[in-house]
Fold each of these.
Amino acid sequence: MTRSALTTPPPGAAPPEPLPGGPAPGSPLGPHYSHCFGCGPKQPTGLNLTASTPDGVTVTAEFVVGGVHQGAPGLAHGGVLATAMDEVIGMSIWLLRRPYVTGRLETDYLRPVSVGTTLHLRAWCTGVSGRKAYLEAEGRIGAPDGPVAVRAAALFIEVGMEHFAEHGDADAFLAEHHDYEVNP
Ligand SMILES: CCCCCCCCCCCCCCCC(=O)SCCNC(=O)CCNC(=O)[C@H](O)C(C)(C)COP(=O)(O)OP(=O)(O)OC[C@H]1O[C@@H](n2cnc3c(N)ncnc32)[C@H](O)[C@@H]1OP(=O)(O)O
């Protein structure tokens, strides 16, 4: 794929190890926030992605493209597909249970995606260097080994809790994550 230098890990950036005590391989991942547009079950107009991790560092999910996701008639909107990429990538770095935000997201659209398609999504981290995490994702049509329709590469930046407290609603998140520790 056409990945830029900005989303390519520098030499020496190692992929993360599974977090001790983190989700067991094969276990489903709940939503990180019930109102999240990507994964929140209380977000009726969202993507409602449900995901699992096969190994503690990779995330897989299925996204059924519906009529509400159209751009051209009968075809998925590219921005919606980018959102799905952003979400599974965000889920994969959230496996580390440290707060990151998307800094840069690059997306390649390789095949049109029809309404009714089940996209099989997968995301993984290629390296962490300081506050920067380098991640990739892909969406395959119809099966985990189906043809690739969309690929993405991203740079996520680790932030402190003050990012959410200052700019968002940290209390709303913490209300659903009583076990979350700021400095575990
Ligand atoms: C209570 C809640 C708990 C936690 C809850 C977690 C929930 C788990 C979520 C999982 C699922 C979510 C999935 C969706 C994830 C989103 O959608 S996040 C929302 C979208 N993103 C945003 O809103 C981010 C907006 N941007 C910002 O806030 C700030 O620009 C940033 C990204 C924090 C960076 O600002 P900064 O902290 O001042 O850092 P800065 O010094 O500018 O940059 C640091 C380094 O990154 C580089 N960099 C920064 N931006 C870029 C860029 N765009 N391109 C290239 N390089 C960049 C800088 O060049 C710098 O590099 P070095 O000089 O160190 O080599």
Amino acid sequence: MLLVNPTKKISGTVYAPPSKSYTHRAVICAGLSKGTSKIVQPLNSQDCISSLTSMEALGSKIDLKSDKWIIESEGILKVPKNVIDIGNSGTTLRILTSLVSQVKSNSNTKTSHNDKNDKKSIVILNGDNSIRKRPMGPLIDALSQLNIEVLSNDNKAPLVIKSSEIAGNTVKIRGDMSSQFISSLMMLLPFNSQDSKILIEGDLKSEPYLDITIDVLDKFGVNIKKENNNYLIDANQTYKATDYIVEGDYSSASYLIAMGVLLDSDITIKNLFKHSKQGDKEILSIVKRMGANLEVKEDEVIIKNSTNSKFKLKGIDIDVKNTPDLVPTIAVLGCFAEGTTTIYNGEHVRIKECDRLMACTKELTKMGAKIEEKPDGLIIKGLDLENGETLKGAELETYHDHRLIMAFTMAGMLAQGQTKIKGEEAVSISFPNFVDVIKSIGANIEIFN
Ligand SMILES: O=C(O)C1=C[C@@H](OP(=O)(O)O)[C@@H](O)[C@H](O)C1
Ligand SMILES: C=C(OP(=O)(O)O)C(=O)O
């Protein structure tokens, strides 16, 4: 359990952890490339380790150094000897579901049940309780359009994927549930023997994550073109081994940025690249629109004390279509902003590690927040800070969700009295040294076992 005590100010310099999304993709691309790739400054977190161990199970050789992961691959995925456990990582599950259809069995290993009619290998992907609730239907359906068969109960993990040649050249997929399905197809289709096209149906959400996929694929020698709302992939492309440096993570940095802003403090966050393709870079515009004072440099962000004792944040309307992971951060910011903060266009926020709209409403209400759940977002009425209204310490559940732990920690630092946050070990999913980092800038927080 985390014991979070009121904290007046923070100060100093911290480094944003490396990007989770970039690390996943770089590791998986390395495992698809013939030769040796070095992933420099990878995010050494539970979710990224899931991608790493999965690629190892699929035949890559991995050498872990403190600041780089060296991945050697024959450029083909091998049939794994066991079920692959992808833990809590939705990104790993979604991306690998397509790719493992391309496993090649070792020609020396004849399995007794294989006869002339059944030369298919299988790969089984499974994960934790939360992963087994994450929807997979649209991806399973898209893969069936390419003649790739995935067996499941209820369109959820565990999944049994049969190895298969890709057939066909056009695949349709809805765009409003998870961009990870589309990233998955983007990483598969370069193996197709014909040029292919991904047709996005309906609204496209979380699109910046597709830009990240295209960006990493490009570094590994694979080209994807965007045409209107669709994506074009040339036939028979090969992934090429490379050395890849991972940039800092704006989603993780959002807690550090919001903490600095809420405590009207001076802090510098390094390792944040100004021209990043990460959608969650939007946190900078969000806090600016709410009234914060910050300076954005090439590779660092400086949050500045407003030097105005009457400093107040303003409530604003925020479309989270492209930034679903910022919702818990914004929910806490909204509690301390004057007026109303409205979060909308976030239906997809309900199908993450947990239903984050429900969880933010339920838990922050325990602290006295005035927050209303809507089908696609949250309406947060700012506390009347001038008249002494504030959040109160409470004991909070976190649903094994890393982002809730970090957002609720910020709320606890601003609250009156101590806040107890259960299940703190889940921060290791994306920001393993979160507690040490925020303690180093003055957060009054400890772990209680
Ligand atoms: O591809 C990625 O790296 C991610 C895509 C997003 O999911 P959706 O596309 O499902 O919204 C995001 O929420 C997740 O944390 C990481
Ligand atoms: C939803 C997330 O990740 P994933 O989908 O990879 O589990 C997240 O990191 O907030």
